[in-house]
Amino acid sequence: MPRLRFLFVFLWYAAFPAAHAQEAPARPSASTRRLSKALEQAITGFRGQVGVYVRNLRTGQEVAIDADSLFPTASTVKIPIQCGLFDKIHKGDLTYNQELTYRDSLHYDDGIVGSLKDGARISLSQVVMLMESVSDNTGSLWCQALAGGGTTINQWLDTNGFRQTRVNSRTPGREAFQKQHGWGQTTPRELANLLVYIREGKAISPDASDEMYRNLSRQYWDHDGLSQLPPNIRVASKNGAVNQARSEVALVHAPHGEYVYCVMTKHQQDEAWGRSNEGTTLLRTVGSLLWRHFEPKSTWTPPAGYEKWW
After folding, report:
1. pLDDT value of position 300
2. Distances in Å between the alpha carbon of 254 and those of 198, 229, 258, 296?
3. Is residue 210 in some structural domain?
4. Per residue in 64-76, pLDDT tens?
């Protein structure tokens, strides 16, 4: 009898192995391993912490290096601010082309919006454009307030599955997070996925996503990773910089398939401002590396002397 029981158990496991054996994770492709190795080499020796997330939207190829750690958003926080604002517009609380009145009490710095005279009239759509295209800080804080503040924006993020991305500045209860991360916080993976979410028409509504994506496709600050792409390639992006951190998220409409990537740094030893900053240099290095990986037959290179424009 024991022998028969043993034989029955043996035959049952042999017949249904999948029910009792955990599937081994798929081995990364040779291409993915090469990309991962190249990115690891690119960040080796960096004096600070780096997070990188890359995904090819056509093939699903993905590389993640410290991609789920929290990093300061710096100005990339203006992507979730735009989402919160467009949610208000979608609900009818605001209209996109409504006229606003600038007041000196809104002044944060001397950007374009902050240089307006008290009482100047400007449309909301223009303020949004300045927030995303030239990263105007006074305009961005104005948009944050119009969106209902950081708490309202964070509720939208949470409802839509973005649980690591948060607005900290001027947000009650998040003072400790602001002290640690600044205006906002996110992870490279989540910020990249938020950009994809907009690209796929899932943020607010298809029409709202379309307009937000158009705003993100008009980037004045194109001297980081974008400078390593041919000028005829469409890109939706946002970058950010504070003393000890640099960040850039981009969705590249490459000929052989769109890809999204996000690079973020923190605790940088190099706090200098300028083209040679370690973080800024890393953004260009990664931008170039990814373009050459996904478009290996491209012969385009930045023209000699391009760097003098920055």
Report:
1. 93
2. 18, 9, 5, 11
3. no
4. 999 999 999 999 9
| Domains of the chain: total | 2
- Whether 288 contacts 267, CB under 8 Å: no
* Residue 61, CA distances (Å) to 33, 161, 247, 293 in order: 10, 22, 22, 12
Contact call for residues 160 and 197 (beta carbons, < 8 A): yes
CATH code, domain carrying 160: 3.40.710.10
Residue (of 193, 203, 212, 204) closest to 131 by Cα position: 212
Does some domain include residue 290? Answer: yes
The share of the chain scoring above pLDDT 70, in percent, equals 92
**Largest CA-CA distance found in the chain, in angstroms, rounded:** 95
- Quick one: average pLDDT of 199-219? 98
What would the mean pLDDT of 89-104 be, rounded to a whole number? Answer: 98
* CA distance linking residue 257 with residue 228, whole number of Å: 17
